[in-house]
Amino acid sequence: MSLNIGFRSPEQWEQLAKAHLDKGAFDYIQTGAGAEETLQANIDGFKQWKIVPRVMRDVSSVDVSTSIFGERASMPVSLAPVGFQTIIHPDGELAAAKAAAAQQVPYTVSTVSTYSMEEIAEAMGNAPRFFQLYWPSDDDIALSFIRRAEQNGFSAIFVTVDTPMLGWREQDKQNQYFPLRKGEGLGNYLTDPIFTEKTLASREGTEQTIAEVASRLFNRSLTWEKINWLRKQTKLPIVAKGIVHPEDAKLAVEVGLDGLVVSNHGGRQLDGSISSIEALPAVKEAVGNDIQILFDGGIRRGADIVKALALGADSILIGRLYAYGLINGQAGVMHVIAQLKEELETSLVLTGESSLASLQQATLVRAQK
Ligand code: FNR
């Protein structure tokens, strides 16, 4: 790993991002909704669980590689959809996606990426990628996004289900900061044939385009019926991102989804909601092995991955962790991923497990209060 960066802890990456970004951009990434109880709980939740390692089990060779929706991955980790990545680095999504490709972990393109999914796909070659859909208020645009994802080698669609509207983000309100308003994150809309055909604004100027995108970006009327409809429109695996209630997890199975992400959107949506790691056991209990279970929220270290897998996740996603690395462009994101993999392998060996399958059986106990 000759990335010329040296060792940096997750906290040091965060500090570096804070030092280099303007306040509006840094706060947009780092903060959560409301009083940030859920943001904090995502981190603290991991401390409620303790690993009880086994010893003397010949862990001379460990293998953390796996497959995620049919794609080989060097570890059970994908990069989560993070919008507007050009607020962190001018190369934005192109840099992060190339880093993911180089480190053999899937990259998830956000609906509100600044570069278009076509540009990102081209930068990635054949490397695995997923597309995240904020289901627009217009189904024709939703379908157009899906078709473009199919044509550009994306291997799963993550429908974000926890965002019928933006959460109550106090810091962004104080900073009067929303990247879309600055013209970031328009890549997929500006290049969409249906959007541009339907809206005069896209031909009139940036202000109008932004207003048109903002008015179409989220959809409060979504129900599982729409997912049922989508299921018939595409053969790509469909994943519901943002499940914390076990009954919703069961519904995801019932409508024939291929995966779900136990997630509260990194504490950015409903403040006061359950932390991701607290939600995971009940979701696992409800759906067992009927559906791939992914997890995100608060993952910063290898031991966090160990805990998430032991509590039932098949793989996890990282959000802020790599977003901070992006301050150093592609090399920074590669550094974060490589370091996380080394740390995961270390944690696996020290837990006394040599495969991910056995790790899923590892013993955890609740911390003493
Ligand atoms: C996000 N997240 C997100 N999710 C999504 O479905 N679409 C998106 O465009 C975005 N954008 C976004 C921007 C920023 C700056 C952050 C921090 C997060 C949520 C993301 O995919 C993931 O659920 C969380 O980031 C996971 O929590 P951690 O890893 O950041 O603690």
TrEMBL record:
<dbReference type="InterPro" id="IPR008259">
    <property type="entry name" value="FMN_hydac_DH_AS"/>
</dbReference>
<dbReference type="InterPro" id="IPR012133">
    <property type="entry name" value="Alpha-hydoxy_acid_DH_FMN"/>
</dbReference>
<dbReference type="InterPro" id="IPR037396">
    <property type="entry name" value="FMN_HAD"/>
</dbReference>
<keyword id="KW-0560">Oxidoreductase</keyword>
<dbReference type="Pfam" id="PF01070">
    <property type="entry name" value="FMN_dh"/>
</dbReference>
<dbReference type="InterPro" id="IPR013785">
    <property type="entry name" value="Aldolase_TIM"/>
</dbReference>
<comment type="similarity">
    <text>Belongs to the FMN-dependent alpha-hydroxy acid dehydrogenase family.</text>
</comment>
<feature type="domain" description="FMN hydroxy acid dehydrogenase">
    <location>
        <begin position="2"/>
        <end position="369"/>
    </location>
</feature>
<dbReference type="InterPro" id="IPR000262">
    <property type="entry name" value="FMN-dep_DH"/>
</dbReference>
<protein>
    <recommendedName>
        <fullName>L-lactate oxidase</fullName>
    </recommendedName>
</protein>
